[in-house]
Write a structure and sequence with these properties.
Bound molecules: protoporphyrin IX containing FE
Oligomer: single chain
Radius of gyration: 18 Å
Order of helices and strands: HHHHHHHHH
Number of helices: 9
Distance between the termini: 29 Å
Number of domains: 1
């Protein structure tokens, strides 16, 4: 097991680079006018989609960590979760700064008026305590039980952000539908593991 932990530890910088690199590439493309006719919308979409995919990757890692031979993969979860938050922040900042030039009054109205934006915003709020408490100090301070409850927020965040995607897509809803299904399956697995399984083996 120690060997495997070291094995995954060695992969950390490669995974970090591989997941961060697309954002740097898109920012480079944006500043060089290579993001098409609507660069702001394009940049926002790319960051948003990547955020959702990385959130789902974090949930998949949690599930894989339950399999004995993949247990040590859990050491990658915190880093990948924080990368998801990094993309959500870039997505949100593109919306606030580039799309609406810090027009807070308009932004608040937009969040209240358009349901898909409301869902995205609530999802962002759910992810905030997760990102803030993703460190050893918080586990110690809060206790593992409370910390674990806070980190369950990743499930509502994942559901709301896939609904956010589903609602905004007008033509082909296949991709957001697939994400909703994946998230629902992972949530059902989690509920089964936490609530039904302990009851069955009692
Ligand atoms: C966890 C948080 C969020 C995730 C995972 C997320 C994800 C996404 C995804 C996947 C898309 C569609 C990308 C595509 O069409 O390829 C998108 C679009 C969009 N998101 Fe979010 N989002 C989040 C939060 C927010 C927040 C907080 C706001 C603003 C308050 C926001 C505003 C938008 C807007 C305006 C679009 C449409 C861009 C366009 O015009 O095409 N999102 N988001």
């Amino acid at each position: 097991m120690i060997f495997l932990t070291k094995h995954y530890q060695g992969f950390k910088p490669i995974i970090l680079l591989a997941l961060i690199a697309p954002s740097l590439f898109w920012i480079f493309q944006f500043f060089n006018g290579k993001l098409g006719v609507n660069p702001i919308e394009n940049l926002m979409d790319k960051m948003g989609l990547m955020a959702l995919r990385v959130i789902i990757l974090t949930l998949i890692i949690s599930m894989l960590a339950d399999i004995k031979s993949f247990k040590s993969i859990v050491i990658l979860r915190r880093m990948i979760g924080l990368i998801a938050f990094y993309y959500v922040c870039l997505h949100f900042l593109t919306y606030i700064i580039l799309d609406h030039f810090f027009d807070i009054k308009f932004i608040l109205k937009d969040i209240a008026k358009r349901p898909f934006i409301t869902f995205g915003f609530i999802s962002f709020i759910c992810l905030m305590p997760l990102a803030i408490t993703s460190n050893k100090f918080s586990i110690k301070k809060l206790g593992y039980k409370i910390w674990k409850r806070i980190h369950f927020l990743i499930y509502p965040a994942a559901i709301l952000s896939s609904l956010h995607f589903y609602m905004l897509v007008r033509a082909n809803k296949t991709e957001p539908f697939i994400y909703i299904m994946i998230v629902c399956c992972l949530l059902l697995y989690r509920i089964f593991k936490r609530i039904i399984f302990p009851y069955l083996v009692r």
